[in-house]
Amino acid sequence: MTAPTFDAGDVTLEQVREFVWEIPQEGEMGAPARVLASEALLEEISGDKTLQQLRNATHLPGITNHAICMPDGHQGYGFPVGGVGAMDAENGCISPGAVGYDINCGVRMMRTNLTYDDVKGNEEELVDSMFANIPSGLGGGGVVESGIDTVEAVLDRGVEWALEEGYAVPDDLAHCEDEGVREGADPSKVSQKAKDRGKNQLGSLGSGNHFLEVQRVTDVFDHQVGEAYGLSEEQIVVLIHCGSRGLGHQTCNDYLRRIEKQHRGLLERLPDKELAAAPAGSQLAADYYGAMNAAINFAWVNRQLVMHRTRQVFERVFDRPWEEMGMELLYDVSHNIAKKETHTVEGDERELYVHRKGATRAFPAGHPEVPAAYREVGQPVIIPGSMGAGSYVLRGGEHSMDLTFGSTAHGAGRLMSRTQAKNDYWGGDVQDDLRDQQVYVKAQSGATIAEEAPGVYKDVDEVVRVSDALGIGDKVARTFPVCNVKG
Q1: How many degrees, rounded to 5, is the angle at CA 387 between CA 385 and CA 389?
Q2: Distance from the CA of 391 to the CA of which of 178, 256, 283, 476 falls in 20 to 30 A?
Q3: Would you place residue 1 in the very low, low, confident or very high pLDDT band (cuts 50, 70, 90)?
Q4: Is 210 annotated as a binding residue?
Q5: Assign residue 319 a region: left if phi > 0, alpha if psi is -120 to 50, beta otherwise?
């Protein structure tokens, strides 16, 4: 019996099994490519250049097993957003294009012991105070005024710097990926221009799809894991989504330009120059890895400072210390990142550069890199949805290591461009519609709200359904917005 196929113009996919579609290896492809999606999501994914970009990604040297697109995948810069690619760390490459410009864009969730009833009536004061006290939008402004020395300390030590300076408590580090500090960070490999761009942005949301959102837990699907994560229905939690700001963007740009000059031969062999990569073992690969790890540290501190300021806002609004409100970090996960990890490939242990661009690490129960607090149940995974659809907390699934190098989706995934969104939506109308749902939104401009309208995004419920069914990220809890500050 012939396997079902999906025709997407110049790309034809073959169904391997339910929710797993493959672009067969042919020509110069170094491996097959796989899309993890329902047919409904695949229809949306095939609407832009995502599948072409995924096929192009298989030309990167050392690609292992297959290039993978998550259910929230959409077109990106060279490498699709929602893409995972594992390249051999000895004979492969590391690709800034497969990491992205916003290095360690990611999310962190902070739980509280407040309930939705505790917040009702305070929504406008809360959203106004968050907007006034947490810098957002393009350009400068941060929670701390910092010089280059501070930036270099942050790049080197990550959240350990925040702990030393009184912006974190030890428990914050214990509940962050890599405990908030990347080994191998080398601030000297980050350019002066990047450091200058970052020095006035520590503790800021930035623009685009970045946000600070107060949410209530509406559903707990797995009560055992929910208890381990400290989640219960009607509880208030806070979600922070931002990255490395101008410093990360400049770092990516710097290394793309250097690759164009130093590894033109490799670049010319790739079907898309936006996949620019440095060969493993080269000095440029080592330099980029050191700079990227440093930018990862910067992003973690950025989110830590936003969380610190959010705690202070809650203290003022609710007139009690944040500790009494149980405002503890549940977890912080990274989205745009390439990490050296050891994975079993055809029975052998191999060190790989695992690129996750708009994808989340999702290690299962028992994995030694899962924080001790969660090792018995699996790593928390946070999947933001739109302002009108809510978000999910998952746990790393038991099949994630075999199927996706320990990864799952990172959000709902965009359906339309920002330009199209501004043509289709009016910010004030979106704000009013959300207010009717008891969701209070504040942003720097109406255009920002229009760009992030709920209709701009895929169905997060469907994205999570596929992840859960494949066993790469299992449903634990669902949340819904109460108030939201947009960059």
Answers
A1: 55
A2: 178
A3: low
A4: yes
A5: left
d(CA 97, CA 83): 11
Tokens 């998952």 -> residue: 394
Q: Give residue 265's identity as a one-letter amino acid code.
A: G
Contact 243, 304 (CB under 8 A): no
Is 387 among the annotated ligand-binding positions? yes
Q: What is the pLDDT of residue 414?
A: 84
**Domains with residue ranges and CATH for the chain:** 5-89+103-415+457-486 (3.90.1860.10)
CB neighbour burial string for 66-86, b if at least 16 within 10 angstroms, e if fewer: bbbbbbbbbbbbbbbbbbbbb
212 is known to lie in a ligand binding site? yes
Structure tokens at 186: 């080398």
Q: What is the pLDDT of residues 433-460, one digit of tens each?
A: 998 989 888 888 888 899 999 888 989 9
Residue 391 marked as a ligand binder: yes
- Answer for the pair 275, 97: CB distance below 8 angstroms, yes or no: yes
Distance in angstroms (rounded) separating the CA atoms of residues 210 and 230: 25
Q: Give 226-285 pLDDT, tens digit per residue.
A: 999 999 999 999 999 999 999 999 999 999 999 999 999 999 999 999 999 999 999 999
Contact 390, 467 (CB under 8 A): no
Catalytic residue among 263, 308, 355, 410: 410
Residue 232 marked ligand-binding: no
Whether residue 410 lies in the annotated active site: yes
**Residue 421: strand, helix, or coil:** helix
List, in order, residues 6 or more apart from 201 with CB less than 8 Å away.
135, 140, 141, 142, 245, 246, 247, 302
Q: What is the pTM of this model?
A: 0.96
Residue pLDDT, tens place only, 279-320: 999 999 999 999 999 999 999 999 999 999 999 999 999 999
Instruction: Determine how many CB atoms are found less than 10 A away from the CB of residue 239.
Output: 21
73: annotated binding-site residue?
no
